[in-house]
Amino acid sequence: MNWKIVCPTILVLALLLPLTGSSYAIRISTLFIIYTIAAMGLNIIIGYTGQASLTQGAFYGLGAYVSALLVLNGWSFWSSLVVAVAFVAAVAFLIGLMTLRLKGAYFAIATLLFNVIIYEIVDKWDEVTRGPRGLFGIPSPAIEIGGVSISFSGTQNFYYLMLAVLVIMTVLYWIIIKSPFGSIIVAIRENELLAEYAGVNLTKFKVASFVFSAIFASVAGAFYSAYIGSIFPDITSFVNSFAFLTAVIFGGAGTLAGPFVGTAVVTLINEVFFTLAQYTVLIQGIVFLLAILFMPKGVMGTYYSRKAEKGGELPKRAIMGKL
């Protein structure tokens, strides 16, 4: 697969999507972009660092809540986005310091418990978050250029905004993975003991990876709240963490394109079974189980494995490590 041709082609098709006149297609595509950004972040900590984090949904929800609360109190969206990202990064840093010395299932359980704690705080802190009543009337972003204000309140305008954000976040994602930092976290994933013997500060790089993961989630959450216009505590629940996890595993953890492919499947499942929303976790669980049983490397991981069997050249980090 020639990504130098595939990527520009997909981008051109994405730019032309609004010409179809389908508001439904634009809405689904916008949500797909938002979810993909969060999944890319999770892939950094799970796929490339090999740490099974179950807190991504909480970071996603925190980004949404912090941004929404500030905007509703008169802040501009862009200022609130910066604060939301910084706040979530700080929370992730603290959680990372407390949990990333743990390994395997112990780390996964610890992050799951922190997800539950964050959800309970958001749900019960009624004076600040309004608890189960949620937040309403969250305005859309706007920018001012040369004295002219441009609002992204329309479905089409917001879609193009998210397309631009996706390009920026994808470039950042690519830079992180292809940088020396990316090489080090992959070394940690493949063999922690060997990496430590080589002089790598395991905690430092694991925490940094965890923070990067949270930053992506917070960006996605902030834009989600601005797009939907209302949020409730369940946005921080484990349901979202599991959805992002399913997307990464199904798409192919440890592959650049995995989050895109996996998120497309999860988004499709959510739409197809919209009338069975109460069974969303069950359906995603079945998909997750099937992926582990029959395609443990995910769609992209399986593709690269078959390519290797045929003697094809693999990208630098296509081989899955242990989670």
Explained architecture:
The protein has 323 residues and is mostly helical. The protein has a domain at 28-236. Helices cover 71% and strands 2% of the residues. It has helices at residues 3-16, 23-48, 56-72, 77-99, 105-124, 126-129, 155-178, 180-190, 192-197, 202-228, 238-251, 258-272, 280-294, 298-309; strands at residues 142-145, 148-151. A two-stranded antiparallel ribbon has the order 1-2. β1 (142-145) and β2 form a beta hairpin. It is globular and about 55 Å long.
In round numbers, the mean pLDDT is: 87
How large is the share of residues in beta strands? Answer: under 5%
Strand order of the largest sheet: 1-2
Give the N-terminus to C-terminus distance in angstroms. 26 Å
Estimate percent helicity.
over 70%
Question: What labels would you give this structure?
Answer:
14 helices; 2% strand; two-stranded antiparallel ribbon; 323 residues; mainly alpha
Topology:
Layout: H1 3-16, H2 23-48, H3 56-72, H4 77-99, H5 105-124, H6 126-129, E1 142-145, E2 148-151, H7 155-178, H8 180-190, H9 192-197, H10 202-228, H11 238-251, H12 258-272, H13 280-294, H14 298-309
Antiparallel strand pairs: 1-2
Helix pairs in contact: 2-7, 2-10, 2-11, 2-12, 3-4, 3-5, 3-10, 3-11, 4-10, 7-8, 8-10, 11-12, 11-13, 11-14
